[in-house]
Amino acid sequence: MCGIVGYVGSKAAAPLLIAGLKRLEYRGYDSAGVSLLNGGAQVQTRKAKGKIAMLEEAVGGSPVTGTTGIAHTRWATHGPPNECNAHPHHDCTDEIAVVHNGIIENYSTLRKRLIEKGHTFRSETDTEVLAHLIEEAFDGNLEDAVMDALRLVEGTYGIAVLSTRDPGKIVAARKGSPLLIGVGEGEYFVASDVAAILQYTREVIYLDDGEVAVVTTDGYSVCDLKARPVGKGISRIEWDLDQIEKGGYDHFMLKEIFEQPQTIENTMRGRLVVEEGYAKLGGLNITREELQNIDNMIITACGTSWHSGLIGELMIEEYARIRVETEYASEFRYRNPIVDPNTLCVVISQSGETADTLAAMREAKERGARTLGLVNVVGSTIAREDDGGVYLLAGPEIGVASTKAFTSQVVALALLMLTFARRRDMSASRGREIAQAMVKLPEQIQEILEDAPTIEIIAEQFKDATNFLYLGRGYNFPVALEGALKLKEISYIHAEGYPAAEMKHGPIALIDENMPVVFIAPHDSVFEKIVSNIQEVKARGGRSIVITSRDEPALEGLIDFEIRIPETLEMLYPILTVIPLQLLSYYIAAKRGLDVDQPRNLAKSVTVE
Ligand code: F6R
Q1: Out of 1, 379, 508, 555, which residue is the most buried by the measure of CB atoms under 10 Å away?
Q2: With respect to CATH, is domain 245-439 assigned 3.40.50.10490?
Q3: Of 584, 583, 578, 542, which is closest to residue 559 (Cα–Cα)?
Q4: Distance, CA 394 to ligand 1 centroid (Å)?
Q5: pLDDT surpasses 80 at 246
Q6: What angle do CA 189, 195, 197 make, to 5 degrees?
Q7: Per residue in 6-47, pLDDT tens?
Q8: Atom 10 (ligand 1): residue with closest C-alpha?
């Protein structure tokens, strides 16, 4: 997804901006660009299609100088990825440069109107209209022109703008696309993601929707679109830069898979009260009485986060006895859902910026539901707009394929379930049993991770397969979906997840010796049932990889590969069974020589609809 970095200070801006863009590479992008002010009449801009290294080459070949600049990584929405469509975009006279994340929905009307007024467009992007609108409105002061332009715009934006006609200044504005100001000593930054500026400062100001910031070497100011000043507090970022780096692993994804003993511990720390068998969740912002009154829940999310939501639904219905519906956020926002004041809408998002999830949360709120965010990125839009929340505390997830956020989401949902269930009819001893099983999970994940070489051997066997089937039942059906998603997104192998018993209703026709079938079959209440499904696959010549939790005579001679995991409670198995699936996908993709951390066509944070 697109990324923005801006700098105003006394240092050469270009290297700082390019270093900032490199920190944003993990977000996924297809082109990049940088614009600087050097005291001349025109903005100096360099752009390149492809990786940041290409931009560095362009800047090396034709250097840009100056201490004020903006830069961007683009993920195409309007117009193909090429140098021309890369940001920054200029006005007609190259005096204004704009970088933009988001989508200008009325851009074609605006573009037509601007062309009629004599403006010349050079790209196919929606963003370019902003540069021309600002040009139209410019009357000596850049922020006034930006505000005038934004009043005409429909859609979403996080923008940073500079101009040779009002130098030494960046104007930034936000509506629906994250943006923050970094406060340094005698220097200021603008960024769409804190990772871009963390090496320079930890002090940031998060902009909210409808706010405009003016940043110069003398300081910053924030106002609304009517130029009324807005007071903003400075937040301190506690994440370390080395948390954002690969830490010795070949890929971020692998590092993040191996971090899970620690990350789920972080999710539980200070929240799980083992002896009492309940969870203390400080950020729920809900009275005891309100909590008691909640009689139905909607869980909404996308992708991997939706899969964790399905597991949460099973836990909450089973133990808290509250009716739960888990919905794709993209579907929820466009139907007429039944929501009442006793509905709790749980919104799950790693990034906290997913456009569909945010829109679903706003829709639920609008209809009177109380909203609760399970979010990883602190200060993200969902985290700021929800009524209450539980941070996942999994640290930055850089690999595009979500791994550690998933396990932290399931842990957070288990904590939420305990909070609700213990206030209803779950006994302290049952709560304690679950809590005791939860504290063992980090060690159990570690045990599975130590078996990574076995999974790598299995990956070698199957790396050239073209299709995979993932089957699980009960709590492990969502894990089958997640395993299949992980494989397809990073290895580009077609994979499907099914409830195991559904296989006979269609997918069984696909089974032959070329179709590996992954069974998620820990020893739980549906284990015996799944053994029959394994037999059905064997009878048709299919090859099976079975994740199971103990020596089982019933499996003897039936399976091709076994991955053993430790035993836990039925509701907690997904936190363990997903680990071998993450590793299997990782090793298959790595063996296929693919770009594991930035798979094609994917972005880390999907901030467009
Ligand atoms: C898959 C993946 C995506 C995200 C989805 C939602 O590995 O990462 O499916 O889970 O785009 O993203 P968040 O959780 O940031 O809302």
Answers
A1: 1
A2: yes
A3: 542
A4: 14
A5: no
A6: 25
A7: 999 999 999 999 999 998 887 667 899 999 999 999 999 999
A8: 304
DSSP code of residue 87: S
* Among candidate residues 276, 273, 568, 281, the one with its CA nearest the CA of residue 412: 281
Q: What is the pLDDT of residue 247?
A: 65
pTM over 0.70: yes
Q: Does 603 have pLDDT greater than 80?
A: no
CB-defined site of ligand 1, < 6 Å: 302-305, 349-351, 354, 357, 401-402, 485, 489, 605-606
Please give the distance, rounded to the nearest whole angstrom, from the Cα atom of residue 245 to the centre of ligand 1.
Answer: 20
From the CA of 486, give the closest atom in ligand 1: 7
Every domain range in the chain assigned CATH 3.40.50.10490: 245-439, 450-609
How confident is the model over 216-240, as a mean pLDDT?
92
351, 578, 604, 608: which to mutate for ligand 1, most atoms within 8 A of CB? 351
- Structurally, what CATH architecture does the domain formed by 3-238 represent? 4-Layer Sandwich (3.60)
- DSSP states of 459-499: HHHHTT-SEEEEEE-GGGHHHHHHHHHHHHHHH--EEEEEE
**Which of 193 and 583 is assigned the larger pLDDT?**
583
Q: Omega before 566 cis (within 30°)?
A: no
pLDDT, tens digit, 9 for 90 and up, residues 203-212:
999 999 999 9
Range(s) within the chain of domains with CATH label 3.60.20.10: 3-238
- Write out the two tokens for 420: 């609700």
Q: Place 176 in a pLDDT band, splitting at 50, 70 and 90.
A: confident
pLDDT band at 242 (very low <50, low <70, confident <90, very high): low
| Ligand 1 atom with the shortest distance to the CA of 403 | 7
Q: Which two tokens stand for residue 358?
A: 């945010």
Cα 58 to middle of ligand 1, angstroms: 33
Catalytic residue positions? 2, 604
Q: How far is the CA of 349 from the centre of ligand 1 (A)?
A: 7
**Structure-token pair, residue 543:** 């090859």
β pairing state of 157-163 and 323-328: unpaired
